[in-house]
Structures are given as structure tokens and as C-alpha cells.
């Protein structure tokens, strides 16, 4: 057998490869396809990934591999193939895509990894989940879904199921029994959840059923714990992986099933290169493994539901809650009438206030939702109209009462609230708008005897706080829970009888063609937290636009009506799912230079697009036109096929991410 003397290596930079390196004699037995190595690139040493081997090379001068970072670890060929697809689809280099599939702690040399990571800590006890290790008898709809899924697992057939079930309809039980069947057949499973905050409770529920077969992966794990779990999976000691977005790359063997829970969630979209969507990567990975995919949601994304309408995905519906529990009654409060009638400004309508008082007095629990943190959303002068804005971003500063600071939620710039107007020196400074902090403060004033907790990124930044709050809520120590979208999904508390939406309009007012979809999803998901026990439930939605179709559809728990209305708008305007979009963002410190580069690239794209398959829109300022001191302009590219757009960009841009001081960001299928 001919000995391999050379390796094709790609690196984690926006540079197309692979590059050829020689394999030193002492490393020959360790270097293989998928090895993580250190190489000299230019004047520096960098990490690379072996993607091919050969016995000969036509190049006269070839640098040797410096060292192998972990002799026992190789990236699976299936993951290398998946990374190549990601690089082609999401416009990155192969090396960048491979790097995204491996946690940073795994990339360290083995000795350094062991030295730098402490003994891992056990996951905090999750006492707010009722785990059961017994299979529940499936309902008729669940059995039909399971029969189809099990048959595909038996036949090793790749198929995508969209499990559309109302909140509380038993989607998790379908996941559990599908995983159990895959396990019986000797096949592994990956379960993705949208938020790290949901991982502990999901893992606890699955551990109750499957015990030590479960491994947990997410970015908040201590480094040593993550290494420990990664190695358990790679060695086949854990066949079921639960985790957030990056768990889609877990090194499982013989993959049989991938579950994407709450598949509509935008948090499945990666913000760094490569800007992948874990839902779509999951489908592609399952395709390479002849595995099944279950996309679960009470509010499926329009893209996924559309795939069922053109017969690419199989639709499975669970239209009723378990044990025929009724969906909660939904009341819409028109805040325009409320304010006119009461002639005052108030966070809570009379109806919501009355129901909170009633339920708390009866020892029931309440969830209040507002997708905006802080105390006041902006401060302005009533005399001259001056608004206190961020020095580095084109946004107003949010007032955080507890910190006594004005904070920018984009760059974290902080300053003290002014006593007088910086522009006209008047003392008529007024605090406007509301955030979760202000809602919590008002609740303490109105209901001084109630136990109240707040869940948002400000309150939950410390490790373990999230689990402690939910455990207290579970045991009844907390009467009212206030929060942002982290409380809108996945939580199952039988004593919650009332859900209040403080303002349904926050997402509707965003400059985003998905604003109606986001609003419907959030309202439906948060409404689903009510009435999951035997006590029934009620939802009160406060809004200034009560007639909007997304709010009306959420009131009636009517996804199909919402979909019909929304999909007709998308088709008329040729928006996803009827096309693919790529957003090009140009950033720089001098706005005239940013605009000049944007217009120049647009002209070059037009000239190179001979087939005229790509529509180019813009340039236009980004919704936040200045962020972290950088001016931002956008171009939008639209086409039926992503390949046409990416091919055009590679032709014009190549691997460049910067032109004359302007940074260019490419986001395929942006959210």
C-alpha cells in the first residue's frame, strides 16, 4: 500500500483552499482525513483541517505540518461533507464551515485542554419538570404520526415530517417514543431546542426516560463538561444528544433521527460566519445519513409549512390538547379605548388588572409577557423634543432603573440619566415607553403581597439563576412571572391560569416583512402557557391594533387562516418562501465611503449577472443605520435559487470581506 506523504488542508479563514502540506514521518500514523492540525500559513501558525491525503505532489516546495492537535480525535467524514455543503450554500470557506462544527474547547491541544478546564460541574437540578420513564398511551393522532415515523426509521428512509401540534398537544411524547424506537434499532438521535434556557428542562425530561443515554451540548456548559460530553458522544457511550443550535454537529454514530423543536424560532440562525440556519442544516445532515427529521411547532415557519404544501415535507397534525383540555380563552383589549375611557396612561388595562388580582388571591399563577427589557424605552425633553441617544448607534438609550443607567442594547454603551436637557437646559425630561423592569415595578406597587419574579437577559445573566427561578415558580413560591420571549415557549406549569400580553404591537412595528409572522408566533406561543392543567386558562392581549390579522388569528388559535393571509402577501411581493434572499451589509466609519463601495459593488454585480436571474435591491440604510460607531448600508439580492446568488458573489467578490476599509457581511436567507 502506498504511503500518504501529503495532506490537503483548509483553514479557518475566508480563503478558498485546500492547501497542500507534507506529513512528517513521526506524524504519519496519526494524520488522517478529519485531523485537526497546526500549520504555518504566511508568517503565522494557524489551525487547519485535513480534507484529503495523497502520496505525491507536483509542487516543488511544500511546508510540513507543524503538529497534530489531538491524535485521538478526527472530524467525521459525514461532518466534513456537511461543512462543504454549508460553505457552498452560506457563502463561507470550507475551513470556516468546518470550524463552526467543532466547539472551540475541543480544538485546543489535548494537554492544554486538560490543563485549562476545571473539573466539570454537574448540571443544576431541574425541579420544574415532571419526568416519567414510562411510555404514555398515544392518542389517535399521536399514534398515526408515530406509525409513519417508525416505518421510515425501519426502512432507513430520509424523510422530513412537520409535526404541527397546538400547544399542549403532546409533541414531546411523539419525540420521546420516536427516539425510543430509533434506539431499539441501534440508531442515534439529536434533539435541538431553540434556547439554551430550555435545554436543562428538556434534558431532564429526556433523562427521566432514557437515563445515561443522554448527553447535553450547549455553549453555556463549562469547558470540561463540554469536552466530557463530546467525547461520550464520539465514543458511542451516549446515543441521544440534547442541545441548542450547535448540537446539530454532534459526533453521533449511525444517526437515525433529528428533532428540531420549535422549528420556527429565529434563534436557530447563526450570527457569525457561516451564517447557517440549524433547522436547514439538520435536514441536510439527516439527508446524508438517511435519517428522519421531525420539525415540531405550534406555529410552523411559513417556509416549512409551504414545503408541506408542495409535498417536499410530510405534514402531521395534532389539533387537540392531551386529555381534550381546552385551549385558553383569549380576550383582546383595545388600549386606544382603554386610555380614552380611563383618561390616563396605564401599563395594565382594567380587565388585566382585575384578573391578576383574582387569580393571585385564589393561589393561582400568572405569566406576563413583554418582549422589551429595561424600565423606559427612551427619555426625551418635553420642551425641545431632544431624545437621549447612543453615541455609537442610531438608537435611543433604554433606562434601567435598578442600575440607574441609560444603556444601549446594541453596543452596551452606558451613561447616567440627565437631570436637565443637554440641548436646551430645561428640566422637562420625560421617561417614555415600558420594559419588563417597569412592569415588575408597577406590579410590586399594585400587588404588594404577591411574590413576583422577572426573567429577561438582564435578570438571568448568572449561571443557574434561570433554573432557580423556574423551580420556585414550579413549587408555587412565585405568584407572578414577568418576562421576555424566554418565557414564551416550552414552559409547562399546571397552576398558570392567566397569561397577559402587555403589548402585542412591539414586533408589528419593526421594519421586517416577517413582523406579522413573528407577532402571531409569539402571541400563540405565550398564550399556550395558560390552561395546561385542570384549572383552565385565560389570555388577555393588550394592543393598539386589535384588527390586525395576526392578532385576530392568534386570538382564535387559527394557524391556517393566518397562513393563508400571510402566504398571499408573500407571493404577491415575491418574498420567501417564493424566493431566496441574501443580505449584503456594508460597514465603515465614513458614511460617504460606505455608500460609494455599496454602489460600486451593485454596478459590478449588475454587469456580471449576464443571465439576469438575480434581482438587486438598494442600496438603502440598515434599519439601525449606525451601530458601534459604524455606518451601515444594505443591498438585497433575490433569486429563485441560492446557487445563482452565491455564484454571482463568488465571481465578483471572491473571498474578500473588506474593500477600502469597508467590511462586507453576506447573510444567506437572513432573519
What does this protein look like?
The chain is of the alpha/beta class. The strands form 6 sheets. Strands 8-9-7-10-11-6-12 form a 7-stranded parallel sheet, sandwiched between helices. Strands 13-23-22-14-21-20 form a 6-stranded parallel sheet, sandwiched between helices. It is globular. The model is unreliable at about 115-130 (pLDDT under 50).
Q: What's the CATH superfamily of the largest domain, by name?
A: P-loop containing nucleotide triphosphate hydrolases
Number of helices: 19
Number of strands: 28
Structural class: alpha/beta
Write out the strand line-up for the largest beta sheet, numbering strands in chain order. Answer: 8-9-7-10-11-6-12
What is the level 1 CATH name of the largest domain? Alpha Beta
CATH topological fold name of the largest domain? Rossmann fold
Amino acid at each position: 500500500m502506498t504511503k500518504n506523504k501529503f495532506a490537503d488542508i483548509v483553514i479557518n479563514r475566508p480563503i478558498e483552499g485546500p492547501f497542500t502540506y507534507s506529513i512528517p514521518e513521526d506524524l504519519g500514523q496519526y494524520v488522517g482525513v478529519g485531523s485537526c492540525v497546526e500549520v504555518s500559513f504566511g508568517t503565522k501558525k494557524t489551525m487547519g483541517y485535513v480534507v484529503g491525503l495523497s502520496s505525491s505532489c507536483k509542487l516543488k516546495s511544500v511546508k510540513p505540518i507543524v503538529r497534530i492537535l489531538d491524535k485521538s480525535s478526527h472530524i467525521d467524514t459525514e461532518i466534513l461533507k456537511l461543512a462543504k455543503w454549508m460553505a457552498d450554500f452560506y457563502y463561507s470557506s470550507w475551513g470556516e464551515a468546518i470550524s463552526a462544527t467543532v466547539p472551540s474547547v475541543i480544538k485546543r491541544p489535548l494537554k492544554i485542554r486538560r490543563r485549562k478546564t476545571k473539573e466539570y460541574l454537574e448540571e443544576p437540578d431541574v425541579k420544574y419538570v415532571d419526568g416519567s420513564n414510562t411510555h404514555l398511551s398515544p392518542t389517535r393522532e399521536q399514534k398515526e404520526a408515530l406509525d409513519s415515523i417508525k416505518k421510515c426509521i425501519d426502512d432507513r428512509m430520509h424523510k422530513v415530517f412537520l409535526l404541527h401540534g397546538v400547544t399542549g398537544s403532546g409533541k414531546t411524547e411523539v419525540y420521546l417514543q420516536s427516539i425510543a424506537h430509533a434506539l431499539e434499532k441501534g440508531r442515534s438521535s439529536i434533539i435541538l431546542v431553540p434556547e439554551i434556557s430550555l435545554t436543562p428542562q428538556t434534558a431532564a425530561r429526556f433523562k427521566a426516560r432514557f437515563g445515561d443515554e443522554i448527553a447535553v451540548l450547549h455553549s453555556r456548559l463549562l469547558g470540561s463538561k463540554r469536552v466530557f460530553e463530546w467525547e461520550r458522544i464520539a465514543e458511542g457511550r451516549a446515543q441521544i444528544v440534547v442541545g441548542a443550535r450547535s448540537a446539530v454537529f454532534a459526533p453521533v454514530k449511525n444517526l437515525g433521527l433529528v428533532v428540531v423543536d420549535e422549528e420556527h424560532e429565529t434563534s436557530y440562525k447563526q450570527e457569525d460566519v457561516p451564517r447557517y440556519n440549524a433547522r436547514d442544516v439538520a435536514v441536510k445532515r439527516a439527508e446524508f445519513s438517511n435519517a428522519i427529521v421531525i420539525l415540531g411547532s405550534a406555529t410552523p415557519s411559513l417556509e416549512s409549512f409551504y414545503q408541506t404544501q408542495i409535498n417536499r415535507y410530510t405534514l402531521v397534525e395534532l389539533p387537540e390538547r392531551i386529555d381534550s383540555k381546552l385551549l385558553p380563552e383569549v380576550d383582546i383589549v383595545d388600549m386606544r379605548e382603554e386610555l380614552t375611557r380611563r383618561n390616563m396612561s396605564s401599563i395594565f388595562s382594567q380587565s388585566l388588572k382585575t384578573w391578576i388580582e383574582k387569580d393571585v388571591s385564589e393561589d393561582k399563577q400568572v405569566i406576563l409577557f413583554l418582549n422589551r427589557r429595561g424600565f423606559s424605552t427612551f427619555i426625551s425633553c418635553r420642551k425641545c423634543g431632544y431624545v437621549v441617544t447612543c453615541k455609537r448607534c442610531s438608537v435611543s438609550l433604554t433606562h434601567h432603573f435598578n442600575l440607574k443607567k441609560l444603556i444601549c442594547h446594541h453596543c452596551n454603551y452606558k451613561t447616567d440619566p440627565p437631570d436637565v436637557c443637554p440641548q436646551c437646559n430645561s428640566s422637562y425630561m420625560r421617561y417614555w415607553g415600558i420594559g419588563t423592569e417597569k412592569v415588575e415595578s408597577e406590579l410590586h406597587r399594585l400587588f404588594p403581597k404577591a411574590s413576583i419574579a422577572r426573567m429577561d437577559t438582564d435578570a438571568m445573566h448568572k449561571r443557574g439563576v434561570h433554573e432557580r427561578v423556574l423551580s420556585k415558580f414550579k413549587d408555587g413560591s412565585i405568584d407572578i412571572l414577568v418576562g421576555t420571549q424566554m418565557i414564551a415557549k416550552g414552559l409547562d406549569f399546571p397552576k398558570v391560569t392567566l397569561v397577559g400580553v402587555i403589548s402585542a404591537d412591539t414586533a408589528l412595528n419593526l421594519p421586517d416583512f416577517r413582523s406579522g409572522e413573528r407577532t402571531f408566533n409569539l402571541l400563540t406561543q405565550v398564550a399556550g402557557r395558560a390552561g395546561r392543567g385542570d384549572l383552565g386558562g385565560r389570555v388577555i392581549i393588550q394592543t393598539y391594533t386589535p384588527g390586525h390579522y395576526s392578532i385576530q388569528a392568534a386570538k382564535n388559535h387559527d394557524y391556517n387562516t393566518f397562513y393563508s393571509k400571510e402566504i398571499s402577501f408573500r407571493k404577491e411581493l415575491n418574498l420567501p418562501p417564493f424566493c431566496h434572499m441574501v443580505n449584503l451589509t456594508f460597514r465603515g466609519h465614513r458614511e460617504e465611503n460606505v455608500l460609494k463601495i455599496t454602489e460600486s459593488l451593485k454596478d459590478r454585480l449588475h454587469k456580471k449577472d449576464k443571465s439576469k436571474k438575480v434581482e438587486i435591491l438598494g442600496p438603502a440604510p440598515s434599519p439601525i443605520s449606525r451601530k458601534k460607531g459604524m455606518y451601515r448600508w444594505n443591498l438585497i439580492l433575490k433569486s429563485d435559487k441560492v446557487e445563482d446568488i452565491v455564484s454571482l458573489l463568488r465571481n465578483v467578490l471572491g473571498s474578500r470581506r473588506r474593500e477600502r476599509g469597508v467590511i462586507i457581511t453576506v447573510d444567506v436567507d437572513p432573519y
